[in-house]
Write a structure and sequence with these properties.
globular; methyltransferase activity; 34% helix; 249 residues; alpha/beta; 9 strands; single chain; two-stranded antiparallel sheet; 24% strand; SAM-dependent_MTases_sf; transferase
């Protein structure tokens, strides 16, 4: 009993406390700090693998984010938003109202003194008033870019998520999502996986592409990375009529 309790406490300790994440951005090392608190904020208090991958993509892709108006959905610990802020973007980090104190503290860890190019805002995807309030703040052109990591967990949330993306987007908005649950090995007859439900719905709202995230956190950083098409992306894209784009890897 005591051993089990110790193991459980050790497990939760992995998702508690302040941590640093290192990225290569704009020709310099970028250190982003986060404070994780799983016990208090559940999944919103944890930096997920998808958040790290998306933050890495945002910092290493050859794009200048300086001055861009960006929105992050389901920000949690705000890793992606914090990285964008340090790259010069104007950020709006969103999550449910109960997560905002945790989110605001995390972004404050990475904001320069006197920086006023960021704020946090409550956003319930099922609330038309929440969507309208944020869209009003963004202006007629909407966000320049919208980011989301590990935001869709059930088929029921796919429609709400895509409606929120559309409500915040303009004709030139770039929306980037990373992390959808891997389909189970066996599906019941007639059951649709979350990833299939998501991919089949996307083209009804946007021009959609599947991208390969730059490398992997376990990849050998000394190995040269080249732009290439992902075989997995091709496999996922075909049944849903999606296009696949080579990415900066």
């Amino acid at each position: 009993m005591h051993a089990m309790q110790a193991d459980k406490e050790h497990h939760f300790d992995e998702f508690a406390g302040e941590k640093e994440h290192q990225f290569q951005g704009s020709g310099r090392n970028l250190i982003i700090r986060t404070y994780e608190d799983f016990m208090q904020n559940a999944i919103g208090g944890v930096v997920t693998r998808a958040s790290k991958d998306l933050a890495r993509w945002a910092t290493e892709v050859p794009k200048d984010w300086h001055g861009c108006q960006t929105v992050e959905l389901g920000s949690g610990c705000g890793l992606v938003s914090s990285a964008l802020l340090r790259m010069g973007a104007h950020i709006v980090a969103t999550d449910l109202a109960e997560i905002l104190p945790h989110l605001e503290y995390n972004i404050s860890l990475n904001a320069y003194s006197g920086c006023d190019e960021w704020h946090v805002q409550a956003l319930n995807w099922d609330s038309s008033s929440d969507r309208a309030a944020l869209r009003s703040k963004l202006g007629s052109s909407g966000a320049d870019a919208i980011f989301a990591a590990n935001c869709v967990y059930t088929r029921d949330t796919v429609g709400m998520f895509l409606k929120t993306l559309k409500a915040l987007s303009g004709p030139d908005t770039l929306a980037l999502m990373c992390g959808v649950p891997v389909p189970p090995a066996m599906l019941q007859d007639g059951e649709t996986s979350i990833v299939d439900a998501f991919l089949s719905a996307c083209p009804r709202f946007f021009d959609s592409y599947l991208l390969e995230v730059p490398g992997s956190l376990e990849d050998d950083e000394d190995e040269p990375r080249e732009s290439k098409y992902s075989p997995l992306a091709l496999q996922l894209a075909r049944p849903h009529g999606l296009r696949v784009s080579a990415t900066w890897t």
